[in-house]
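[stage:ingest] chain + small molecule (adenosine-5'-diphosphate)
[stage:ingest] validated
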Amino acid sequence: MKILVLNAGSSSQKSSLYDLGDSLPGRPPEPVWEVRMEYGVADPRDQETGESSAHMTRVRTKARGTATETLADIGSRREATEHMLASLWRGDAAVVSGPQEVDVVGHRVVHGGSDYSDTTRVTPEVKAAIKRLAVFAPLHNQAELEGIEVVEQTLGAVPQVVAFDTAFHARLPMSAAVYPGPYSWLDLGIRRYGFHGINHQYCAESAAQLLGKDLDSLRLVTCHLGNGCSLAAIRNGRSVDTTMGFTPLDGLMMGTRSGSVDPGILTYLMRTMRRSGARLDEVLNHESGLLGISGVSSDMRQVLAAMQAGNARAKLAFEMFVHRLRRNIGAMLASLGGLDAMVFTAGIGENSPEVRAAAGEEFGFLGLKIDAAKNTQSRGDEDIAAPDSAVRVFVIRAQEDWAIARECWRLLRAAASDYTERHKS
Ligand code: ADP
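[stage:predict] done
[stage:export] tokens:
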């Protein structure tokens, strides 16, 4: 089964093609074809003319192990997606003979509201819901809907599937989902949705697999620490609490996002300094977090390097990041009432032994012990807890595209066996 995955962002798009057989491999396979497109890249010719217009698209392709990179002058995001799809069967990186060879297309969609708690086939109703929910995630949902439409036009009637980043959290208990404002907020759709659900779910399944236990018997805290950071408390395979909320701004301190701050700060700034909503959005999303406090970078590697070189603000940024991580892990533990395993994933979670060690340190009272050597040497998808630790600690590589491909495979398989059953009787 040839599965194409489209993972569209506001300024970039990732796509992968997986070729799967009759059973799912235990470990994530390499895609046979992968394209990463980045929009709004500066045109090198501008240096000669003195102009500056960031209108180019950087296209990085990896097909059957060979990598290439080009800078293309493509007019719009829609055209870029068309160009990317056509390169599946045309040109040097072609891996299929034509569009008819693709069996299913899976899309990551950021916002599925509270109605979608599972991966689902694209129908006119699902498209209408993605459009309606764009009010909550304007940059993302619109780009993702456009991707679905371009596939319809280019590949025709191929089955399409959407995996929502909110779906895993859609059945949060109401006590965790509702904000304690006026009850009317709930009617306006203002509630905790949570994000990074595709990866939280994937990490929970992978942790159960590594433990050799049934997910239904486990209590897990998954720590997704990338540019965006969030935690999920997972009991019996269900997300029962999470730190991101109505928007991906809530919760942990992040690269450039503040995470939770006293809402009184915002009304104070509006009242006394006449800050507009748009300006506050900008400050909270792009000028806060590691970057805002350190003044060095949003990248944890650079914050750590500056801290080691004696930069006091970088040290404060690191200590705040860890403090907020620990106190939110504590909150997730309280929602779970116990812990079998903690998982670290995404850029910082997978690559920073410093953050993992500092986050785990204070949970010794639970009997949690990280093995120092395993922590520094970890290459991912393994247990880094000491043998006598009462809680397992996993590092799991985020594999969003693979997680979506796997869901597509399961959904199509289930549909095919339903069909066979119906035609037997
Ligand atoms: P995104 O959330 O955009 O998908 P990633 O999951 O790739 O991002 O995480 C990006 C972040 O991971 C970077 O900003 C950087 O801070 C962090 N990171 C990557 N490698 C390391 C490392 N070796 N040590 C510490 N942090 C790292």
